[in-house]
Here is the input.
Amino acid sequence: MTPTSPDLSGSIPVRNEPDIVLARQLVRKLTQELKFSLVDQTKMITAASELSRNTLVYGGGGTMEWQLLQQGVRAGLRLAFVDQGPGIPDLELAMKDGWTSGSGLGMGLSGSKRLVNEFELDSGPGRGTRVTITRWK
Here is the structure.
């Protein structure tokens, strides 16, 4: 489940609370391997924590896919949180600070977007959700 140096991508399940902890630990390990600054490590770990929790709570569970990136001299980490849940009917509303379909603070999606360099949200009613984030060193 944990990557070794030759591995450039992989995935882990997000099906329960302990999986969220494992996702955070994996992101910490990957960001350390990429030699991200402590601030950038914390940003990526925080975003991964929020999005894995959303995957579990709102999507009914799914997976976290990871990919180590290299673009010329810059390195990055891409994470995708994928579920087959009910989907998000109004993406614009879901991205507004303070909006929540549950009992949270409504900062998961919009807050995560602010913590990363690239953010993609693909969702719709009845087709699940895929949130992809990327942070570059």
